[in-house]
């Protein structure tokens, strides 16, 4: 399954080379933003597991930077549309990047939410009832970050296969979340006083799951760029089946 | 009813160069070249200038009340194809046309067919505004007069006014109909040429880069006019401005080195062309 | 830090400045050359005009001698019946001679009398005859009449013959000179406007020679040339340019037309002689045959100019006309021809001017004949202005020198009038856009 005779780099080949540069720049900016979100997520989860309030606070304060990056990237999108009047794949790329920017910003918010959760747990001064629950966090963070990273790679290479792979992992993330929920519910049954902490943890887990969803959204945009088909709100399994089948 | 996913999978065929080579043997054209309500039907049209083939096996319909735009790099044959539609190519020495071209079911390249009434039915507007060096009135009245469309002066006056109104020029020139048409501005001249064309009540109007010599405001006026004219005529327009094609047409045809590469709804062509060449051209990657 | 290469190389603008002076000098030289060419050209034209006008303007005045003529009924109308036939045949010369003898009664000897009669032109008989025919009532009366002087007298009065020369070197001898001076003293010699120059045909006698014949000959010839050549040339040009297929035959025709324009005109004369006169039997020496020959000669010029004019009509106009459904012929006649017309007219005028000045081919078809009568139509024997000039320039009489120049002036005036008409026609056509 070659990645492709058909994958083209949508930022290349314009007669006006400045256009190429601007597109590459915008995409690079978006990728950088994505890297930062992944970094934030990792830091937040680490802070939560290790009870490091200092790092957690840094994550929260860094969240503003991602917001500013969103503003800059939006500016760039605006300029490109106004100046170049993009069509076809260029138009799709720019529109998709614009949506990816939104997704990344919200993913960044979620990372900050995880960090807030860490701070909250720390300030309450209570140790978590069981270390095992933190394993779920690590697991989910691992998955969400990989999805995000893969979707960004897919975006960088306009790689449909990689994007489809992100959809495939969506399921695993969901299962992990469900498992963690069940685990947390048992805590509440055992000790009702833990409810406050458990709610915090649920928020944290939910945030990680949302980050994975955003990665899925980004993968959808990659497919939109490459194929021109809007695949949002569709059954992922069918989609994977249809698009992979094509490939063979 | 198939599932959406299936539709997605089918609609967006990934077209590789190998596919293309295979497709070339059948038909070079990607997309639906037929129109549900065709006015002009062109099948397997080939055009040669002496030994050089300018158009290769082109199939294309021009439907009723639609604007079909033809785009493509210079020398791709789009103008040549346009000029086949009212046999303007007849005037070029060494030009040969084969294939079927029908207007309302009548073969326009039939030996017995007279080109004079054909050109009255299929009017043409040219790249450079070319009003006759006569008065504005005479420019519009010329066609009806030689074809004997009106019975008396009053009728002719009415026809001239109607044509100028349709071309959106009446208000600007009604007080100076006796002044030379060449004294108008470029955009007005082009609208005068359009008025001159519609004065002979054509069914199809061919436009060969009608705005290439005009400024953006004049261009916008012509584009608005084209959109209005669509209600009564079929229009085929050749343009170098892809934005213009996107703005005025319902269907777009992309020509490349004499081949009709892709035809489709303008929306689709400009957001999601299916052929790599089309995409390269409209996104400015050509060459 | 500049790289050594960049430092070593002078800036482009310095080089430009260096070359600037040379370029401007070249420009000035070119402009000077052009201007001097124009000045030299104008100078020669001026010299030509001054020379011709200087020599020729006197021809427009003609010396006359006033004599009191007794219209003797015995001489004019011995039968007294006023028979026009008789009136025409009468010896009017005698009336003039009688009057001269009456003026100078002392002259008796035959030799002297001949000299005395020589003061008057041989044309006076005609002059007096016309007077009588105009009003027969004059018969029997005496009237002071201005009679044409001989060309020698005319030259003397105009100062072309020096009175101070010794008698042997002078064309007017002492005795006639004395009579002339006597008449001058009486005020009986005057210069009048030379109407006969414009109303007479040519003559052996300079004082009687006029250009009316040649003028009418030229007029008829040119008119016919125009009528023949313009339609043929325009039709040819339109056909070749707009309708003819481009193949070997049309190429051949085109090359031939271009070659014909360069054929020496005398060849056309020979052709005319062989074809029109000998084969078709067109009467020789007539404006008709002249026009036919000149048509052949001017056709290539007009065709080439017309084709150029047609080529210069923008193709967009043709497309526009064809585009609204005009037939090819309508396209030509409604749009292309009107636009090409000014250019075609220019070509035609050049051709006509050429024809007007042409002598050589006309020599071959007999238009050089000495023809006194003014032609009344295209089939009368005639000559044309340039041929007339050629003939006069060849004549030995002193009086023909000024007439030659005068004829040249008339020819030029004719030419200018023609060109002006053409310019006006052009204007008119052009105003229709």
Summarize the structure.
Chain A has about 250 residues and is an all-alpha fold. Chain A has seven helices and no strands.
Q: Can you lay out the helices and strands and say which pair or pack?
A:
The complex is a heterotrimer of chains A (248), B (287) and C (433).
Chain A: H1 17-50, H2 53-84, H3 88-124, H4 131-157, H5 160-190, H6 195-227, H7 236-247
Helix pairs in contact in A: 1-2, 1-3, 1-4, 2-3, 3-6, 4-5, 4-6, 5-6, 5-7
Chain B: H1 4-11, H2 17-26, E1 38-49, E2 52-63, E3 67-71, H3 78-84, E4 95-103, E5 106-107, H4 115-121, E6 122-125, H5 136-147, H6 153-166, H7 170-173, H8 186-198, E7 204-208, H9 216-229, E8 234-238, H10 242-248, E9 251-256, E10 259-265, H11 266-271, H12 276-282
Parallel strand pairs in B: 3-8, 3-9, 6-7, 7-8
Antiparallel strand pairs in B: 1-2, 1-4, 4-5, 9-10
Helix pairs in contact in B: 5-6, 5-8, 6-8, 8-9
Chain C: H1 4-8, H2 12-56, E1 61-70, H3 73-76, H4 84-89, H5 92-103, H6 110-117, H7 124-134, E2 142-148, H8 151-157, H9 174-186, E3 189-193, H10 195-199, H11 212-243, H12 248-260, H13 265-279, H14 287-311, H15 315-323, H16 328-357, H17 360-364, H18 385-394, H19 399-431
Antiparallel strand pairs in C: 1-2, 1-3
Give a verbal description of the structure.
- The complex is a heterotrimer of chains A (248), B (287) and C (433).
- Chain A is an all-alpha fold.
- Chain A has a single domain (17-247), classed as Methane Monooxygenase Hydroxylase, Chain G, domain 1.
- Chain A contains seven helices and no strands.
- Chain A is globular, with a radius of gyration of 20 Å.
- With 287 residues, chain B is of the alpha/beta class.
- Chain B has one domain: Rossmann fold (3-Layer(aba) Sandwich), CATH 3.40.50.300.
- Helix content of chain B is 38%, strand content 23%.
- Chain B contains twelve helices and ten strands.
- In chain B, strand 1 and strand 2 (52-63) form a beta hairpin.
- Chain C is mainly α.
- Chain C has 19 helices and three strands.
- A three-stranded antiparallel β-sheet of chain C has the order 2-1-3.
- In chain C, helix 11 (212-243) packs across helix 18 (385-394) and helix 18 (385-394) packs antiparallel against helix 19 (399-431).
- At the A-B interface, helix 3 and helix 7 of A face helix 1, helix 10 and helix 12 of B.
């Amino acid at each position: 399954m070659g990645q492709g005779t058909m994958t083209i780099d949508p930022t290349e080949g314009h007669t006006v080379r400045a256009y190429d540069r601007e597109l590459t720049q915008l995409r690079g900016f978006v990728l950088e933003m994505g890297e930062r979100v992944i970094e934030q997520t990792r830091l937040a989860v680490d802070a939560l597991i290790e009870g490091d309030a200092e790092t957690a606070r840094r994550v929260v304060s860094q969240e503003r930077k991602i917001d500013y990056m969103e503003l800059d990237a939006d500016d760039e999108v605006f300029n490109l549309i106004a100046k170049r009047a993009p069509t076809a794949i260029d138009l799709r790329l720019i529109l998709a990047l614009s949506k990816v920017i939104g997704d990344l910003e919200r993913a960044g918010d979620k990372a900050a939410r995880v960090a807030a959760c860490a701070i909250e747990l720390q300030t309450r001064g209570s140790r978590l009832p069981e270390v095992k629950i933190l394993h779920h966090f690590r697991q989910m963070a691992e998955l969400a970050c990989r999805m995000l990273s893969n979707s960004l790679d897919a975006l960088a290479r306009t790689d449909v296969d990689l994007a489809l792979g992100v959809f495939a992992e969506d399921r695993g993330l969901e299962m992990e979340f469900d498992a963690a929920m069940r685990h947390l519910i048992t805590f509440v049954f055992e000790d009702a006083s833990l409810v406050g902490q458990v709610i915090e943890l649920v928020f944290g887990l939910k945030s990680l799951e949302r980050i994975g969803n955003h990665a899925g959204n980004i993968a959808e945009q990659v497919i939109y760029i490459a194929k021109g088909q809007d695949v949002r709100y569709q059954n992922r399994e069918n989609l994977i089946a249809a698009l992979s089948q094509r490939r063979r | 009813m198939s599932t959406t996913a299936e539709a997605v999978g089918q609609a967006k065929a990934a077209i590789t160069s190998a596919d293309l080579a295979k497709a070339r043997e059948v038909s070079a054209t990607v997309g639906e070249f037929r129109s549900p309500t065709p006015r002009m039907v062109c099948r397997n049209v080939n055009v040669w200038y002496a030994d050089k083939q300018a158009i290769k096996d082109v199939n294309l319909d021009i439907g009723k009340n639609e604007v079909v735009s033809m785009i493509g790099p210079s020398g791709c044959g789009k103008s040549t194809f346009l000029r086949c539609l009212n046999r303007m190519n007849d005037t070029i020495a060494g030009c040969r046309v084969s294939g079927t071209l029908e207007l309302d079911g009548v073969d326009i390249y039939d030996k017995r067919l007279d080109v004079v009434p054909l050109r009255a039915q299929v009017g043409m507007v040219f790249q450079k505004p070319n009003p006759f060096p006569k008065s504005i009135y005479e420019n519009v009245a010329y066609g009806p007069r030689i074809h004997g469309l009106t019975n008396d002066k009053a009728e002719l006056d009415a026809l001239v006014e109607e044509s100028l109104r349709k071309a959106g020029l009446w208000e600007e020139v009604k007080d100076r109909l006796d002044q030379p048409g060449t004294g108008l501005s470029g955009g007005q001249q082009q609208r005068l040429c359009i008025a001159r064309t519609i004065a002979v009540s054509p069914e199809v109007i061919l436009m060969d880069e009608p705005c290439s010599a005009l400024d953006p405001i004049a261009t916008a006026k012509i584009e608005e006019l084209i959109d209005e004219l669509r209600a009564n005529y079929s229009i085929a327009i050749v343009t170098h401005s892809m934005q213009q094609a996107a703005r005025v047409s319902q269907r777009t045809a992309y020509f490349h080195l004499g081949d009709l590469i892709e035809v489709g709804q303008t929306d689709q062509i400009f957001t999601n062309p299916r052929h790599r060449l089309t995409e390269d051209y409209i996104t400015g990657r050509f060459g | 830090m500049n790289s050594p290469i960049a430092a070593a190389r002078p800036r482009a603008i310095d080089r430009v400045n260096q070359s600037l002076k040379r370029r401007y000098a070249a420009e000035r030289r070119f402009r000077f050359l052009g201007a001097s060419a124009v000045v030299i050209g104008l100078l020669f034209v001026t010299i030509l005009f001054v020379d011709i006008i200087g020599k020729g303007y006197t021809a427009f005045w003609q010396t006359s001698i006033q004599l009191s003529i007794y219209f003797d009924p015995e001489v004019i109308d011995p039968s007294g019946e006023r028979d026009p036939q008789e009136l025409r045949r009468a010896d009017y010369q005698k009336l003039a001679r009688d009057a001269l003898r009456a003026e100078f009664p002392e002259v008796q000897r035959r030799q002297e009398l001949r000299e005395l009669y020589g003061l008057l032109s041989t044309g006076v008989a005609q002059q007096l005859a016309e007077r009588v025919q105009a009003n027969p009532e004059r018969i029997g009366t005496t009237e002071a009449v201005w009679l044409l002087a001989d060309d020698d007298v005319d030259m003397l009065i105009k100062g072309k013959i020096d009175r101070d020369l010794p008698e042997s070197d002078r064309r007017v001898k002492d005795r006639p000179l004395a009579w002339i001076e006597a008449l001058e003293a009486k005020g009986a010699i005057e210069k009048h406007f030379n109407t006969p120059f414009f109303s007479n045909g040519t003559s052996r006698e300079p004082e009687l020679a006029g250009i009316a014949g040649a003028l009418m000959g030229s007029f008829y010839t040119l008119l016919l040339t125009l009528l023949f050549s313009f339609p043929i040339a325009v039709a040819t040009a339109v056909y070749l340019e707009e309708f003819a297929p481009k193949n070997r035959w049309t190429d051949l025709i085109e090359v031939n037309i271009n070659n014909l324009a360069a054929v020496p005109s005398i060849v056309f004369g020979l052709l005319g002689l062989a074809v029109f006169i000998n084969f078709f039997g067109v009467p020789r020496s007539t404006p008709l045959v002249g026009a036919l020959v000149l048509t052949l000669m001017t056709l290539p010029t007009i065709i080439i100019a017309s084709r150029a004019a047609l080529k210069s009509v923008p193709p967009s106009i043709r497309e526009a006309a064809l585009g609204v459904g005009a037939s090819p012929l309508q396209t030509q006649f409604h749009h292309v021809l009107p636009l090409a017309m000014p250019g075609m007219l220019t070509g035609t005028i050049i051709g006509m001017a050429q024809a007007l000045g042409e002598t050589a081919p006309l020599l071959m078809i007999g238009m050089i004949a000495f023809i006194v009568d003014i032609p009344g139509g295209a089939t009368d024997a005639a000559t044309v202005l340039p041929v007339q000039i050629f003939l006069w320039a060849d004549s030995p009489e002193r009086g023909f020198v000024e007439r030659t120049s005068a004829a040249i002036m008339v020819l030029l005036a004719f030419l200018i009038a023609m060109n002006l008409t053409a310019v006006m026609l052009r204007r008119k056509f052009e105003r229709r856009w």
